[in-house]
Amino acid sequence: MSNQLTEEELASLMPSEMLQHRTPIPTQIVSSDEFYPDPQNERQKEVEARMLAMADELGGKQGLDRRKFFQTAAGMAAAFVAMNEVYGPVFEVSKAEAATPAMAQERANSLKDQFIMDMHTHFLRDDTRIMGFVEMRKAVGKAGWNKQLNDHEQTIEDLKFNNYKKEMFLDSDTKIALISSAPSDIEQDWFLTNQQMADARKKVNDESGSRRLFAHCVFAPGQPNWLENLDAGLALNPESCKGYTIGDNTHKETSRYPWRMDDEKVTYKGYEKMVKAGIKNVCVHKGLFAPSVEHQFPNLRGFVDVSDVGQAAKDWPQLNFIIYHAGYRHVGGDPKVALAEFERTGRISWTSDLADIPTQYGVNNVYGDVGQLFATTLVAEPNVCAALMGILIKGMGVDRICWGTDALWTGGPQWQIEGLRRLEIPETMQKKYGFRPLGGATGPVKTAIFSGNNARLYNVDPKKALLELKDDKFAKMKAAYDLNGPEPSHTRYGYVVPDGSIDHSVFV
User: Which of 65, 183, 301, 387, CA to CA, is 20 to 30 A from 245?
Assistant: First the structure.
């Protein structure tokens, strides 16, 4: 989202923390500054109403108010029952599970030791200048959304380090995470510097006594001194590198250095340095560029699709190219557009192009990270989510799809973990498009996505890692926390459209 939004424009959105109902899964799109959120649609309103009704009925029988019911495993199950009632049978869940806390808890307990590597996560640095989150709260306070906002200086502590640890490692089943960042042409506006990512990794791993957090080194081809900065970042021994071909995603309106992955004169110099430093994994942000965004920034359009992935992968077989958000275009746009496109053509913009690359270019070093693709379609149009997973697995192979949630922008990652555990491609869709079923929560397909592929990419032995992590300080903290009755916040961090009356096509 551009930092040039006026106070009135900011006031057209609302901090997602202020949503009235803390449901186990979001019932409308929440965005970071990477895209403008779509308003809550009619079906999402219906899902929310059904969730609330179930909380009143089932929670009431257990003597729990809505908030407490939603914090239980039965409350999470109820959310997926509501989704199935509205969207059709997309999730493996039963009404009995939602109505029977012991049954729901037994299922949750049986899965809590599942090995999950979330290699796409964020928090903001302590000295961040990206105050859109704070300005938003001030603006909506003045606009009257919440009178209390006038009385308090708003902070963004929720998007910082301590809350990151709680959401990732106490309130979710995530075992290992990778901390990422986003670059800017303005040095101070990087989410985290390379040094800060390395520092966070050290802090978490020292505190836990094991290897819980991995770190990126962000690179920005074409920026002044970018190769020297890459050298400095590589000296911090990152587990992988990350770039944004759009250039400055935070300030799209002034992005001066967009680049292509297959630019032999510029980008290939960076790959050369990475290979020399022993880096194997290059993560690249792609997609999240709906037609409304293209309308505002047509100059960036040639840099954000996946047309530059295949040649780079062919030229650099010693590197793995992990495409974040799997290039999904329609985030920030109406998911109905993606559904209509799929029903008409059997394809979904840019993600289908990505899935074609292994065959087209004869490469096996291109991967799709699910990122916002999963987070937004799961709540906006689960049939699109199922279609996207089918497209990716059919085209790239199940061993090339990687788990990443983009948390904390999307709140804690547990609702997405539950989403994949329960998601199934509807049988009619499987038959029509030749998609294979996703299978059970711990079956081979979901195990590969949750951890198998990331473990292979990052040289982690899942069995050894699970043994090591089982007795570290974070595991002990989580056990004590669970014993005392966990209190997941169900807070999403970012922006939402307060109602459907706003024309969002003029914003980013």
Answer: 387
